[in-house]
Each structure stands twice: as structure tokens, then as C-alpha cells.
Amino acid sequence: MNNALRKLGQLALVLFLVTLFTALLVSLLPGDPAEVIIPFGDESDREALREELNLDDPLPVRYVAWLGDFVTGDMGNYYRQSITEPVADRVTQAAPVSLLLMLYAQVLALVIAIPLGVITAQRAGSFFDKFTNTTAFGILAIPNFVLALVLSYVVGVELGWLPPQGYVRFSNDIGEHFRSMILPSISLAAGQVAVYMRLLRTDMVATLQEDFILMAKAKGLSNKRVLWRHALRPSSLTLLTVAGLNVGTLVGGALIIEIIFTLPGMGVLIFQAISERQYVAIQSLVALIAVGYVLVNVFVDMLYAALDPRIRSARG
Amino acid sequence: MARRRIVAEPSKDQTEPLLVVDDLHTTFRTPSGRVRAVNGVSFELKQGRTLGIVGESGSGKSVLSRTIMGLLPSNNVEVTGSARYRGNELVGAKSSVLRSLWGSELSMIFQDPMTSLNPVMRIGKQITEVLRHHLDMSNDEAEDMAVSLLRSVKIPEPEKRVRQYPHELSGGMRQRVVIAVALACGPHLLFADEPTTALDVTVQAQILDLLDEQQRERFMSMVLVTHDLGVVAGRAHDIAVMYAGRIVEMAPTRTLFQNMRMPYTQALFESIPKLDLPSHTRLTVIPGRPPDLVNPPTGCSFAPRCERAQARCLEEQPPLMEAETPDHRYACFYPVGTPEGDEALAENRRRGYQAAGVPVMIQEKAS
Amino acid sequence: MPEVEPTSVKIDPAAGEGPDAALRHDDPDGTVTLSKTKRLGPIGWLAIIWLGLVALMAFVPQLFPVPGLTERFPDALRDRDFGPTAGHPLGFDTSGRDLLSKLVYGTRASMIVSVLAVTFGLIVGGTFGLIAGYFRGKIDTVITNAFNVGLAIPQLVLAITLAAVFASDANAGYGQRVLVVTFAIGFASIPILGRITRANTLTWANREFVMAAKTVGARTPRIIIREVLPNVAPAMFSIALLGIAIAIVVEGGLALIGVGIPADITSPSWGNLIATGRSQMLLGEAAQVMTASLMVFFTVLSLNYLGDVVRARFDVRDSAL
Ligand SMILES: Nc1ncnc2c1ncn2[C@@H]1O[C@H](COP(=O)(O)OP(=O)(O)OP(=O)(O)O)[C@@H](O)[C@H]1O
Ligand SMILES: [Mg+2]
Q1: DSSP code of residue C85
Q2: What is the pTM of this model?
Q3: The domain made up of C41-320 is a member of CATH 3.40.630.30
């Protein structure tokens, strides 16, 4: 109980500091932020912007105002010469694309990594184990954008098996949707597969030496059951933690992969915001990502408890 | 409380023994050499009887029981010899054959109940899975059975326990659960590998009594492994004393206690605390350390630590000899309670050291 | 966030030490083959040789017999054949410039950025990590929470943001942009480097010899520098190797997003070669992307491998990822 409160306090603190940091990004801009954000137009536009962003107010006031807007879904605007467009509108379009990409990649990574981890652990030292580990080590050294570029070029352009670029909405055409997501998901998942597999293998090897595994064997259970029902769950805790922490890597990777495959997700949004110098948008997007990331880790923490009854009861 | 009572002999059953072990060797290939953990062990075990295997830490008791069960890791082990269960050879048996025996015919209880239950699986599930696997029970049947098994191993509130996880139970309770799992399918042969070493002194006797009771109720055979001669004293029909991978003395319990021949058995015996309590003592009272199993000494492996050791003991390995008492065998050239033995001891005391150069105390031992 | 505290439990690799050694199924990684990876081995030497080559390319690219960056080879352009020819083992880019020379001269920017970034991150994060792990208590809570905040923003996102904000001045010069990119990557790596240092310090700060130094009355900075730091150093070193590998990749990512080292004919980096090579690749000329990617790949592979060797050698536990 106490522990839960402390966790909650910590979470609140982290969220506070992260949003504070991002909320103040604009004031980090060298020179007059209004000048940087609206280089065109006249002074009255800038005055309006100063008003909107509370640039003349002291920091706490500005933060509270920003936070109030942020939690109510007002993420500021794109400031263009002709129109100002709310950032939130674009986010509602883009976020699902990124989330789907990360989801597919994460699922793909786990679906491949878990069996590989289990089998290599069971056959630790075998040729298969060594081969898989060496391959994984090599894959770890391939940046995901390199893989994306190569896949897009070889499979997409040269072989023409899958679209090298572009996105199809799930609601438009399910088959095409998945076809358009295969290469991006593989590019994003490959590195994670290697990480997860190695982690799971290490933990599995340790678990397989536990007494309760010998006891499970001595019950006469099949090897399969011993591995998957007895050994996997207690071995998956590190994997889970890292999978949660890795969402950060995944987010970063997704941004670049989206740009390479021109998937209209958050990455493309950030890319555009940066190239158009839309700092208000950048600030909101980063805040959004950070909050999402923190929440994912809270969720992982909860899953942790579901997987390990010892933690569950320790928390009361 | 451990009662040192002599176990009633079961009705003389003249059938083929349940388990026949013949010249069993287990060797581990390790980077530092070949570890001969079990080095030529033979014995027989009849239905309904309990064999106590006693020896210091590292003498190969666990490896022996696991070799017979076929539960050793496969990659660096060599096993030769034979272990027949009801006439079926277990050494080198196919893993599918072994798996069908494990849990149903042959069961095992491990030393540490804190680590031998799966921490993330409910107690009930850990019992029902073995029932469902071997006896093809439905889920409901298995659950009822699990509750009655927990009741029979004297766990209070079994209906509640089946839904709990191991960490919610005390060590003694967990060991009871382990016993319930091991007994679930009514095995004929139970290996209990130091089932009480990790437990509180007060709980030890309860667990041993429980095992004892279940063994007699089910007319099961049991191999009770321990490093404490006191534990098996009142509970085993026969006792085998192990040293450095060999059986160095073996006899029916009463015979062994009255007529022990092997100096090592005597040393073990003297290390039992004189209080009538289950012992917790590791056998630190025997001077010296167990031998290196990679390069064992040429002669008797106990010679370097033996008060009676003579030159011959260092050169020649004593074979397992028949004693005049029935079913009693020992491996010693200068046995306890024989003129040769007494003479050897007296000579060493005169010299002040034994053949391996270890000093021998002059004063008489109280015994 | 679930925090994995380093445990000091270590299974003794000597077989049969524990009471029930018989049931320990042998782990070929844990006992036998570990000793192999502790030595450098042929792959380790290859890695070192490669990194040495990379260092030479970074510091004295003039040593390599390649044409200058601005030189163009009209023959390749005329024939529209950009493949390898004599004297140009990797061929040309689509403007007829020698590819190998771009790679060689691109090394400097990539390496300077990644090495300096990690040095910066390690000095800042390492110091705070040492302090947090050594003193524990309140100061640890504060620093750890600060790290957690940093970790709450994905490293690449943070680096992108910082690079975008600080290089917002459109007229920022090359030097300034490089500095911004370096700072962005370095700053973004502080939390992770700091956390790992902290975790390793925790395991050492309570060791007997540190206690002994305390009781003898040694001054705290002295204890930290003389007793704790040397023991934490191998961990920091191995993390630095991995960190440089990551930084190289992040540099590439920043370049692709358009906030990296500005792509200019005279200022290549591996990252911006990959970024600018994309358009050539879609025209069917994949050589620039491929070769620059291979440079990144071999360098990252070497750094990862050596990082692993150092970890195995000094028995570093990567408990706090
Ligand atoms: N997997 C293995 N690899 C190498 N040596 C082993 C292995 N398992 C056991 N040994 C060795 O075999 C010998 C016998 O071990 P065993 O565990 O059977 O002793 P024990 O009599 O059960 O002792 P304890 O009372 O401590 O349980 C020991 O010297 C041990 O080091
Ligand atoms: Mg044992």
C-alpha cells in the first residue's frame, strides 16, 4: 500500500519534470522565441503568439497554463504564413500509425525472440545456439535505418515484392495495410529480436538450473511443458523490463523508419515540424511521447506483478 | 522428536527386489578432470523397505540417487553399470521410458523446499499437473485429489492452500507440498534427498515422521539420503554408508549400530549429537577433508583421515567384504571391533601418527 | 519503473562447490566458454585492427591514397557507370566523386561526434552516478529521479529536440552544428550512463576495502577516486565502447531526420552519406548507402564485441540497463 503510494508519487514527479522540461523547450531557443517561431508576418502576430504562449509570464505561470492546455488536448498550433493549424489535429491522425508500427514490431520481435531464446537456452552450447547467438550479435550492429533502407531498396525496389514506401490505412484495405507495414515492422523489430533473445536465453539458462525445474522433470512432465510452463514465466521478468524500457528505442527507431518508408506517423510529424521550425509543435510532440513512454513503463510494472506473484503480494 | 525406534520388519517378501543396483559408476567430465562421483555402487532394495544412505557432504549421495533416477544433466556425464527397477534397466533407458516412470513409479523429494517449488505457479496446479499427466484425471477430479493429498500430508486448510503460491507457505509446509507432489501418483519407490536439511530442527522430525508414515501406509520403498546417521537410525531398515563415491559399509540398521566395522561409520556415529534430538550438525568433527574425486588416493579413500590406517591401507583398495553378521558388508582391512583393528589402532597410538602421517591422539575415546 | 538492484550473488564457476552441485545442469556459457571470451581472440584482434584503421581515417585521412573530396571524375558521369574501376575500388557517387574518399573523410566527423558525445555523457553522468551510488540516501534519490526523468524521453527524441532547438539559427556554421549535435547526443546519453555507473558503484561502495579506507579516515573524494573509481572504471569503459557505438548510430539517425551534421561535399559524415545516398539509391545506385552503412556496421560490431570482452573480463554485471 505504502509502496504503491510511493510509486505513484514517483510517477507524478517524473511526469511533472518531463513536462516541465518540454514545456520550457521553447524558452531554450536562442534569441527571441517569437522571432524564431514566426519569422514572417508582423509584430502583431508575434504579440499574439507571446500572449498565447505566455512568454512574458514567469515560468510557473507559463507551465501551469501550458499544462492546462496540454491535458485538455490543446497542443498549440502550426504557425504558417497563411493559416495556423492545431497540432492536435495532426496528432490524432499520426499517432495511430506510429502506435501500430510499434505494436507490430514489438509483437513480431517477441514472437520470434521468445522461441529462439527458449530453444537456445535449452540447447545451450549446441551449434544452433552458437549460430543464433552469433547472428544476433551481428544484427545488433545493424542500425535499424540501414536495414530499412536496404529492405526498402532490395525487397521493395529491386524485387518489387512489397511496397518500398507508403502507407495504407487499416480501414481502407486490410491486406494492403499489412503489406505496407511488413518491411517497416521487420526493420524496427530486427534489433529488438536480438536483444530480447539474448536476454531471455541468459535468464532461461539460469532458470533451467533451478531446483524446481529438476522437480518438474522428476514429475515426468514432457520437456515441452517443463520449458514453456515452468521455465519461461519466471525467466521472462528481465525481458519484460527491458521490453518496457526499450519502448524508448522503439519510439526513436519508429520515427526514422517512418521517414524512410514515408508512413504518416509521429516521426514524419516531428520531421516536418523540425524542417519547418515549428517549435510549439515539437514541444507538444516530445511531451506526448515522453508521457506515453512513462505510462508504458507503469503498465510494464503492473504486468510484472501479474507474472510474479511474489511481487504482487509484496506490494499488498 | 526423533524416536530412535527400531523399525518393524515388513512381512518377509521373497520376491525379486524392487530395485537392483549393480556396479554403478558416474563420472563427470569437468575442465579440471574426471570427477568420479559414484564409483562402483551395488545394492538391492525390496518392496516396502527403507534404505538410508549416509555420508558426508560430497560423498556422492545425491549423484547416486539422481543416477538411478536418470535425472542427471546429459552433456558431461558418463554412467556405467546397471540399475534395474522391477527388472527394467534404468541406465541408458530412453528418456520417454524414464519420463513415464518419473512421478508415477519413481518419485523424488529434494533438499530445499524453498527452491524446489515453482515460485510462479499455484500450489494446486503443481499437484494437479502431475495427476493429470500420469493418471489422465479431469481437472475437477485432480483438484479434489490435490486437496485430499494436502490433507494427508497434514497441511491445514488445504482448500485454501491450493490457491496459494509457494512464497505464502513456511518451509515445513512447502516440504509437505513437495511430498504431496511426490506421492500424488502413488509411486513404488521414493528418493528423499536430504528432505530435512534445510528445515528448522523442530520441523525436521515432523517431516521425517510424515515420510515414515506414508512409506508404511503405502508399502512403498524409500531411499532416504542424509548426512546424519541419527536421522536414519530409527527410520531405515538398512543403512548404506557412502564415502568418496563408494559404499564402505552396509547392513541392516540394528546390525550396523551394534556391530559397526568401518572406522568411517564409527566416526559418523560419534558425530551424532548425544542429545536425543535430530541433528543439524554438518560432520565437522571428523578431522581432514573428503578426498579429491579427480585424483583419488590409491588405497582406501578414507585412509588419509583414519586413525587406524596402516601401510597396506595406502596401497590397496579394500574390497567390500562379508561380515559374520548376516547381510553385513564393509570395506576395511582393520575393522572396528576386531583384533586386527584394535592392534592397528594401538600401534598407531604408540607411534603417535598413522600411516599417512596424521597425528593420532593418545587419549581413549569415550564410547 | 522497475529498478533492478545489482545483486552480489555470484555462482562460483568451480563445479561442485555448492551442496547440490549435481543438479546444476552445466552451463557451457557460464563455466567453460567464458574463459574463451575473456581472452581477446582472433575476432577481438580484428576488431582492434579495424578500430585502429578507423582512428587513422579520423585523424590522418591524408595517409590514405584516395582522391580529394572535391575531385570529380567525368568518365564515370559520361558513361553513367559508377562501379569500381582501377584506382577507385568502391566506384563513384552519382556526381562522379570517389566513394572511398568520401568514406575515409567522413570518418572524422562521425568519430569526433560520437567519441566526444560519450566522453561528455560519461563525465557528467559518471560523476553524478558515482556520487549517487557512493553516498546513497537523499542525494541518491534526487539523482536517480533526475536520471529517470531523462530516461523518460527516448534518447533519440531528446537528441533530435536538442539538436533542433540549439541549431535553430539557420545560419549556424558547420562548427556550431557539429557542436550542437555532439552536445545533443552527449546530453541524451547522460541518464543511461549515469544509471549504469551508479549501479556499479553501489556494488563496490560497500566492499571491505572501501570500508577499511573509511575507518582509516581517508577523505571522501580520495576514497571515491582511489578506491571506488578504479573498480567502476572497467564497467564505465565497456559502457563507453557500447555508448560510442550507439552514438554513431544516433548520428546517422539525426542526419536522416535532417538535424545532423550538415551534408556538404566537403564535410561528409557516415550518417549524412547514408542520408544523402537515399535519393541515389532510389535511382538504383545503392553503393553510397551500402558502403557507408558497412562502415557503421563494422565499427559498431567491433565496439560491441570489445565491450563484451571487457565486460566478461572484468565481470561487469549489466544489472541496471
Ligand atoms: N554436474 C557436476 N559436474 C561435476 N561434478 C559434479 C557434478 N555434480 C556433482 N559433482 C561432484 O560429485 C561429488 C558428489 O556430489 P553430491 O552432490 O552427490 O554429494 P552429496 O553427497 O549429495 O553431498 P551433500 O550432502 O552436500 O548434498 C561432488 O564432489 C561434486 O562436486
Ligand atoms: Mg546432496
Answers
A1: B
A2: 0.81
A3: no
